[in-house]
Amino acid sequence: MKAKGKMQKARIAIALCLSIIVGSLSASAQSDGSEQNKTGTPGTFAIVGARIVTVTGAVIENGTILIRDGKIAAIGTNVSVPSGAERIDGKGLSVYPGMIDAATNMGLTEIGQGANATVDISEVGTMNANARAIKGINPHTSHINVTRVNGITTVLSHPTGGLISGQSAIINLNGATQDEMAVVADNALVINFPRVATGGGFGGFAFAQQAAAPDVNAAVRRRDEQVEELKKIFRDAEAYLKAREARQKDPSLPLVGIDLKMEAMAPYVRGQRPVLLPVQRERDIRAAVKFAEDMKVKAIIVGGQDAWKVADDLKRNNIAVIYTNIYSLPVQMDDPYDYLFEVPSKLQQAGVKFAISTGNDGSESRDLPYHAGLAGAYGLSKEEALKSVTIYPAEILGIADRMGSLEVGKVANVVVTDGDLLDPRTNVKYVFINGRKLPLTSRHTQLFDSFKDRK
Amino acid sequence: MKKITAFLVLNILLLGSLGGSVSAQAAGGSVLIKNATVMTAIRGTLEATDILVQNGKITRIGKNLSAPAGVRTIDATGKFVTPGIIDCHSHTMMDAVNEGSFSVTSMTRIRDVLNPKDIAIYRGLAGGVTAANLLHGSANSIGGQNSSVKFKWGKPVEDFLIPDAPPGIKFAMGENVKRSNFQPQGGVQPRYPRTRMGVVEVMRDAFLRAKDYKQSWDDFRAKKTKVPPRRDLELEPLVEILEGKRLVHAHGYRSDEHLNLLRIADEFGFKVATLQHGLEGYKIAPEIAKHGAGVSIFTDSWSYKLEAYDNTPYNAYIMWKAGVNVSINSDSNERMRRLNLDAAKVMKYGGVPEEEALKMITLNPAIQMGIGKRTGSIEVGKDGDLVIWNMHPFSPYSRVEMTLIEGDVYFDRAGDIARRAELAREREALERLEQNRPAGAGAAAPRPPSQFENGHLDDADHIDGGKR
Amino acid sequence: MRTKLILVLCAVFCIAFSSSAYGQSYAITNARIVTVSGPAIEKGTIVVREGLIFAVGANVAVPADAIVFDGTGMTVYPGFIDAVSNLGMPAAPQRPAGPGGGAAAAAAAAAAQQAPTSNSNYPAGLRPEDMAADDLRAGDGQFEAARAAGFTTALVTGRSGIFNGQSAVINLAGDNVSGMIVRSPLAHHISFATIPGGYPGSLMGTFSALRQMFLDAQRQMEIEKLYEANPAGIRRPAADRSLSALYPALNRQMPVVFNAVTEREIVRALDFIREFNLRGIIAGGHEAGSVVDRLKAQNVPVIFSLNLPRRTTSAAADADPETLMTLRMREAVPKAPAALNNAGVKFAFQSGGLQSLTDFFANAAKTTENGLSKEAAIRAMTLGAAEILGVDKQLGSIEVGKIANLAVVKGDVFARDRFVSRVMVDGKVFEFKEQPRPPQGGPRGPGGPGGNPGGGAGGPGGPSVAGTYNITINIPGQPLPATLTITQQGNTVSGTMTSQLGTTAMTGNMSASGFSMSGGIEFGGSSITIVMQGSVAGSQISGNIDSPQGQIPFTGTRNP
């Protein structure tokens, strides 16, 4: 009897411990339970009687969209629902293509501060062309579910740091493995493009100029030296690749030792894949454009606060901008308060190809629609705002043949809502990625469920 | 209320700390806003309604009001009006955030380091913010004394202070207080406390010392002692807390820490005004409700540090449902500009009703700061702190058209845009002056004298710029 | 060779020589005399005897024993007063300008640590008992540049700390300190500085620490009174010389000078002055024009710094434009003295760290171009200053019985071609020979105001900065330790900095002022570009880190 009581007590204690662990961070920083990691249900789905916002075509009222074999099989007002299809009543609902966040670090970092073990964002050293985001992305990061249940189905995730940070990946926010997630495993080279750094900032005293002010001309020279260093890496890579290729054809030539970093440069020095250049200020964007011109690389600007001032250069070189500064304060004290809200509208008017991205590490990537919405409050039309997080990023990232709009034959990354996709009050009702219907659960809903009824 | 007023008078006499604040309070403006959709944040949304503000106070709300002679009329047809947004956790306009030398710095005062020319104030107005709770950082168990301000951009600093706002103070627990992310190296002693255990003891020690301190004064006043005790600026604010005269705004993340603080408060017989951040408030919503503390949160920021990993955007809903007064703050010069969208989100996460969501950025923070009687909702008798929006403020496409404090216009989008050309001309003229022309050899223009370029999510971490 | 160099330097700079002893009588005749206290005498005589003004007027007889200086074509002014300066004070790291003071703050911290031990209850920098007169150095040589510009008197205080040291009014001649001092101590001087690595470590803390000290002093005074009346049953009050040094300030016997340049600083100083009912004075006062009403209401004089703000940076195509606030401020500052004058706020001029004292008069001229009368400007550097400092009974004007401090000037005192041919300090004569103007700037005397001999070594051709250093990055409230390794090849430097934030590789080069390197630092998953600028002196390294988030000072020592 006594022993039994003890056993029972122990059991209760264990149960208590378990219940605490379920909601506690220590046990769950790396994986967040089976429910939210479900990779969804495959099948044939028909959303019937919904407002279909195709993005690239006209809005279809009271239409039907058919999802089959992972693809969009049909869209229209006269689509017949095949037998065996799961029929979803779309009355009062809107259907959108999944949103694409084109510049994140999704899956490369879980907790930026205080949990270094979860951070895989930046490799040691300056030249890391062979660092591939796809190999660092944690498919089971809690950020993924949190993001996709808000209608973002695809992101670009990229490493940072050094001079050449590594290669980014385009991933769908669903999959048990990195391979299952990959849309384009290695899509671009991230160059931490050298910038003019003059510092300053705090000080707080208007008379700080009496002290030595940073020397902009020197900072420009420093930047240019670093750009030269960067160009040298590109030229070295070309020479390396040329020598390796020649040796392959002619074994009598001297052997050039393998260099993984140089190998990784091949598609980029040859202009087959783009480089991502994170630059904000006019002076640095101009330098980045010139670099792209000089080295004949395909470039995409990331950041781009002042990009509209460089519109002609960008257009001439067919360089797009992934704009990441809606949630940023203007840099200059005298900049108009809405300066950074208005940039997308200015880019659009200037005819520069652009997308809006959160530029976030992944945890707040789900705010993408509100970034676009705010641009919509300051000059951009609602239609353009929606495009800036759907078809535009798809075009810039070279996946518009598969994603970014609701078109027959495209991948079924589909979001069903009860309102405007960009409105923070809107509820996401269904999310499909690759035609799989996903559970709308996440770490957040789990924590909610665990505690909502606690009295 | 009377108690508070009495205390303030005492404060002025004893400390002179509010010095300039009493003198310069202007009467406030008069204005008639016509034909707006008025979201009162207390009595629903009124269509096609007029609001009359006279001498800073709302005097009438109704239809077909006419402007008294000389009072400006603003046509708000098709527009929305809300109360001014109140940010219950801010470090805007502060020339210092943390006095990190000790873990108890209750003697420091934000009032001493206010910068009324911080451009972030204006940008906040452009996002509809009219008032803020300016808090010491979270480096210390017991930080400095707060300032409750209205964003009266362009006015002298003393005009910013809300005269009848009860004084407050910052507390903090957790990672920042125990200096988790700032390991000293090379033989430097770490600051005590280094654990959550120590944090609790530091707080208890401070309050016990404060009780002794109070006793020493009581003894002196009862003529039990000859020599007046030392005025101790560290302990005086703690005595005020014990006497219920000073509001505690306590930074924290983990629910156990919040509970520990509530227990300390119970032990020493005071009430915590707000749990700041409170990302795990939902885990202990019943306990918080029972204690009566408010919670001032981020709607959905999370995962930026270990402590923030257990947040859920349903936090607001669970606590609201449990009867907790919830406000949504920014802790950031950047985020401050879009608190309307943060409030909108709680309608989705759990389903907080629209008016309750609006309250979380207006009336609720006002109540938490002890200024709910004068501002935070659109009611006759309250301050004319109002925001005019181009459309429903929870729409992503909404934009502030005008922000008024006590009937005076402090932000006007049309005026701002119109002024830009004029400023460009002024700049051109100024740049021609000898003292503004470039010198011989050298360097760059200095950066603006603004303390914090970006805000920051977490106030002990201000080197990261906070864009996370 | 070395001697020769010194001789050449003397020919250029040290053109003053003294003549005769103090007891001698002199007469300056046929000069225009600006008495300041009364109307100017177009052609008159001043007689000086035993260091005092013996007679002055249009029809004054020259005594038989007097050495006569013909003042034809000259104007005689009361000797000019630099109303706050560091003249005669030992070279020390420059006082930090504020939280952004950077290298200066770091150097001040290093100096504070090296300061001799004290039995004060307060840390270095927070010791109101410190007296400038104790640190003052005697010797004529150090004042030559100041005298050559026409200055005969200065209020001097220390260069660092929150309490800079109780100041002294000194005459700018004398072989010993006691001979120089006119009055000491004169005032407390407070800077809104911090004590790096200690309390107060922030601007907030500075105010709390000061407030607590003044309160403690008030109480100490009361207890001392009680104890003196009847010591029985009262614990003897501690002998605290820091607190007792504040009694005269609390009793309004001694003024308290606040170094406050910006509007914010001035308002904060005014608040503190009101809080403790002090006899406050503002020093610096560049933005005093915006707060004249409060200055007037509180009857607080301003010792306005003629170190007028101007753009010091060159044009750079890629530079950010200057802020309107800065541009407007530079326009407004020269107008402040007129605003003070019009409002009836007492004011005086100080050199405020000007490199060249010639600029003192050129900048004073700018205030006259911005609404101030020339008479008022002259007054602000003579009698006005003496009044604010409370020495107007003996200094500041040309009146019988006053100290014979005179400046004999050829040409308009505000003009660039002005020449001071002679000054008299305590009746001692210093003569100057007119000489070709150096191409740039004015003479720089040793120990001249604002001279900062504490600059770092290690410029081009200087000692190498290479080495490994343990440094502390003084992020306010949370110092961050790091290891910095620098390698140097000619003018090129590169380095790595390792801290808990990671390792940052940097490259850059040397300049006259030290090294400058930049690199990227990872923080919270994003990359920030930082610029590290600093200098090495002996085994000490100090400087600033500039990042988009701000400027942060660092200090450290070289690992052996």
Notes on the structure:
The complex is a heterotrimer of chains A (455), B (468) and C (560). Chain A is of the alpha/beta class. In chain A, the strands form two sheets. In chain A, strands 1, 2, 3, 4, 5, 14, 15 and 16 form an eight-stranded mixed β-sheet that branches. An eight-stranded mixed β-sheet of chain A has the order 6-7-8-9-10-11-12-13. Chain A is built from 16 helices and 16 strands. Chain B has 468 residues and is α/β, with parallel strands linked by helices. Chain B has a domain at 123-354: TIM Barrel (Alpha-Beta Barrel), CATH 3.20.20. Chain B has twelve helices and 17 strands. In chain B, strands 1, 2, 3, 4, 5, 15, 16 and 17 form an eight-stranded mixed β-sheet that branches. In chain B, helix 4 crosses helix 5 (236-242) and helix 4 (196-221) packs parallel to helix 6. The longest helix of chain C is centred in the middle third of the chain and has 27 residues, at 203-229. The two termini of chain C are 36 Å apart. Residues 1-20, 93-105 and 438-462 of chain C have low confidence and may be disordered. The chains are: A alpha/beta (455), B alpha/beta (468), C alpha+beta (560). Chains in contact: A-B, A-C, B-C. At the B-C interface, helix 12 of B face helix 6, helix 9 and helix 11 of C.
What are the SSEs and their pairings?
The complex is a heterotrimer of chains A (455), B (468) and C (560).
Chain A: H1 2-23, H2 25-28, H3 34-37, E1 45-52, E2 60-68, E3 71-76, E4 86-89, E5 94-97, E6 99-104, H4 133-136, H5 142-148, E7 152-157, E8 164-172, H6 178-181, E9 182-191, H7 216-249, H8 260-263, H9 266-269, E10 275-279, H10 282-295, E11 299-303, H11 311-316, E12 320-323, H12 339-350, E13 354-356, H13 368-377, H14 382-387, H15 391-396, E14 414-417, E15 428-433, E16 436-437, H16 443-451
Parallel strand pairs in A: 1-4, 1-5, 6-7, 9-10, 10-11, 11-12, 12-13
Antiparallel strand pairs in A: 1-2, 2-3, 5-14, 7-8, 8-9, 14-15, 15-16
Helix pairs in contact in A: 12-13
Chain B: H1 2-15, E1 31-39, E2 45-54, E3 57-62, E4 72-75, E5 80-83, E6 85-90, H2 119-125, E7 129-134, E8 142-145, E9 147-150, H3 157-160, E10 168-172, H4 196-221, H5 236-242, E11 247-252, H6 255-268, E12 274-277, H7 285-291, E13 294-297, H8 315-321, E14 326-328, H9 339-348, H10 354-359, H11 363-368, E15 386-389, E16 400-405, E17 408-412, H12 413-431
Parallel strand pairs in B: 1-4, 1-5, 6-7, 10-11, 11-12, 12-13, 13-14
Antiparallel strand pairs in B: 1-2, 2-3, 5-15, 7-9, 8-10, 15-16, 16-17
Chain C: H1 2-12, E1 17-19, E2 26-33, E3 41-49, E4 52-57, E5 67-70, E6 74-78, E7 80-85, H2 103-114, H3 132-135, H4 144-148, E8 151-156, E9 168-171, H5 177-180, E10 181-183, E11 188-191, H6 203-229, H7 241-244, H8 247-250, E12 256-260, H9 263-275, E13 280-284, H10 292-298, E14 302-305, H11 324-332, H12 336-343, E15 347-350, H13 358-369, H14 374-380, H15 383-389, E16 406-410, E17 419-425, E18 428-431, E19 467-473, E20 480-489, E21 492-499, E22 502-511, E23 514-523, E24 526-537, E25 540-547, E26 550-558
Parallel strand pairs in C: 2-5, 2-6, 7-8, 11-12, 12-13, 13-14, 14-15
Antiparallel strand pairs in C: 1-18, 2-3, 3-4, 6-16, 8-9, 9-10, 16-17, 17-18, 19-20, 19-26, 20-21, 21-22, 22-23, 23-24, 24-25, 25-26
